[in-house]
Specification:
The chain is mainly alpha-helical. The chain has a domain of 159 residues: Butyryl-CoA Dehydrogenase, subunit A, domain 3 (Up-down Bundle), CATH 1.20.140.70. It is 63% helix and 3% strand. It has 24 helices and seven strands. The strands form three sheets. A three-stranded mixed beta sheet has the order 4-6-5, sandwiched between helices.
């Protein structure tokens, strides 16, 4: 491990991504950026008579598509250049200038969607049936679904003008919790360490229980001091959701949030009810955790400390790629050949450098390779799983872009987490089957338990809280801080079970979750993991038909709604069975861990 973080210029070119599939250099980007600006007046020209006949509409859609493809490509390149070194002022300048022109482009084309909604049904039907419209059929069909919820031009303009102020609650929450709150420092065996929103999770993983307790109580004491403000901010966000749903004639805020993906509310309810039925499994895990930690009482600050120390192993990047590729061989030769070529041939920005964005992501576009940013470390096993995870996203993007027209190639977030966590399932199975000893296997199982708990059970608890909070507001009851804390405490007690002893401040956790300001989003993590578990087992233990069905899902892009595309892949998320199966596997992992650790 290096003692210093290198400058960007010190990283080998072979270890950086190669953005030439977008533009060969910044100079070529500048030329194309100048062209984007000249495309804006065309939007106004197309406005007059765009729906006069089929040819006029088709011509308008083609012009809009040309603009969007160019805009995506330029924005993609500029953003990637910023993330590789956020201190690069030239890249930041490119991104800022692009944002300005992009905003102008959105305004220039803002008339198109409402205008399409105003077209006569018979005219649209003729266009959809025409052989000239295959590239736009899905786009038009999905857009027209929103017609009952689109208001008149004057009302839409007022809502658009209000969009900036609608972010106030979320922005105020972020500033308060990330900037204004000073949590101080906590004494550790290595001396005092700063307590922040980011370091809180690290404190909760420390072996010294006294340090965990001190950090936990100190952290939530600051939230309690601002509980009324935090409660008012979240209540304001819920009220805004309620208002927008009423204005747009949706039966509820949840119905509005699920409408774009055409996800039935029964999917959301099935998730909650099925997880609730399986809560004894989760309670069994907490009982085991209490036993393994040797505690008289299990506290909220005891649930994140690792039960198994990380196995020390070193996998240089190229070796890690070999492991991932071997694990993914059930997906077929074409898949692994393409992914290997990308992971070793220019898709990936591999290592940390000064100014580089932390964490990891995959960012795919219609034109260009599906690039991956990593901060890979040889001695961190989780980073090997990250290669598989982000590689899953990139292969999803790669297949989607090559199998669909631009206007319907992009898949939803609902589907995105399936492809990434699917790959993780295969890598886990491979590493477990090739594990050298029980300690290594115990570490792998414990890690998967923690990941499943965080993604399936915890996100479902969050989803249930969001549902309850909005129901209270929509029924006309006051959503006070006391009501919010009471509702959240009831969920804590239900999900964590009888082994858990909570502090008086534990229910303040419900006031610090940033995802709640983007309502009815977190359930997608739980459904995505459930789907990926079901599909990975089909591919692992099935044959060519199961593999081809899964690859068909990757190729579907945005051509179908997510429930439909997953059903064709072989999993029906409108039914409870996939969630039940994920819960059963969690139970099997818990018992497997108990056996492995009791052998010691």
């Amino acid at each position: 491990m290096a003692n210093t973080i290198p400058e960007r210029s010190e990283i080998s070119a072979n270890h950086k991504w190669n953005l030439s599939s977008l533009f060969k250099d910044d100079a070529e980007w500048e030329k194309n950026f100048a062209i984007l600006g000249t495309m804006l007046p065309e939007a106004e020209k197309k406005k007059a008579g765009f729906g006069a006949d089929e040819n006029a509409l088709l011509d308008t859609l083609k012009a809009y598509e040309r603009y969007l493809i160019s805009e995506e490509r330029l924005g993609y390149y500029a953003q990637l250049r910023v993330t590789e070194d956020e201190g690069n002022s030239a890249a930041r300048g490119m991104s800022a200038r692009f944002a300005g022109v992009s905003s102008q482009g959105q305004a220039a084309w803002s008339w198109l969607s409402p205008a399409i909604q105003e077209l006569e049904e018979n005219f649209v039907a003729r266009c959809l049936a025409s052989q000239e419209f295959p590239d736009y059929r899905v786009f038009l069909t999905k857009l027209r679904r929103f017609k009952p919820h689109v208001l008149g031009a004057a009302e839409e303009r007022l809502l658009a003008l209000q969009s900036e102020s609608a972010q106030t609650a979320q922005e105020a929450f972020s500033v308060l919790t990330n900037v204004d709150l000073n949590f101080g420092s906590v004494e550790t065996p290595e001396g005092p360490k700063p307590l922040t929103q980011s370091t809180f999770a690290s404190f909760m993983r420390m072996q010294e229980r006294s340090v965990r307790k001190a950090a936990y109580l100190q952290f939530y004491a600051h939230f309690e001091a601002h509980q009324n403000t935090l409660g008012a901010l979240y209540a304001g966000s819920v009220k805004l959701d309620k208002y927008q749903a009423q204005v747009r004639k949706y039966p509820s805020a949840r119905a509005m949030a699920l409408f774009p993906d055409n996800v039935p509310e029964a999917v959301y309810d099935n998730l909650i009810s099925t997880v609730n039925e399986n809560l004894p499994i989760l309670h069994r895990y907490y009982s085991l955790r209490k036993e393994l930690l040797g505690l008289d009482s299990l506290r909220h600050y005891d649930v994140y400390v690792p039960l198994v120390k990380e196995v020390k192993a070193s996998h240089p990047y190229e070796e890690a790629v070999d492991i991932v590729i071997d694990a993914l061989k059930p997906l077929g030769e074409d898949y692994v050949r393409t992914l290997r070529g990308g992971l070793l041939g220019g898709w990936v920005d591999r290592y940390e450098n000064k100014g580089k964005r932390s964490g990891a992501f995959s960012a795919g576009s219609f034109i260009g390779d599906p690039y991956i940013l990593l901060n890979y470390k040889d001695d961190v096993l989780h980073d090997l799983f990250t290669i598989a995870h982000e590689g899953g996203h990139s292969m999803h993007s790669w297949h989607s872009a090559r199998s669909n027209p631009f206007m319907c190639y992009n898949y939803t977030i609902f589907e995105a987490e399936v492809a990434s966590t699917f790959n993780e399932q295969l890598v886990f199975s491979y590493l477990y089957d090739h594990g050298s000893d029980d300690r290594e296997k115990a570490f792998l199982v414990a890690t998967r338990i923690d990941d499943t708990l965080a993604t399936l059970f915890r996100q479902t608890m969050f989803a249930e809280f969001e549902k309850r909070a909005h129901e209270i507001a929509e029924s006309g009851e006051a959503l006070t801080v006391d009501v919010l804390r009471k509702e959240y405490r009831a969920l804590l007690e239900k999900y964590f079970g009888p082994e858990m002893v909570f502090e008086s401040v534990s229910d303040l956790e419900g006031l610090r979750i940033p995802h709640f300001y983007n309502a009815f989003y977190v359930y997608k993590y739980a459904t995505g993991l459930s789907a990926s578990i079901a599909l990975s087992e089909k591919v692992l233990y099935g044959g060519k038909a199961e593999r081809d069905a899964y690859l068909g899902f990757l190729k579907s892009g945005g051509s179908r709604f997510p429930i439909e595309s997953l059903k064709l892949a072989g999993v029906d998320m409108s039914r409870p069975e996939p969630v039940s199966a994920a819960c059963r596997r969690f139970a099997e992992d818990v018992e497997k861990l108990a056996v492995l650790l009791h052998k010691e």
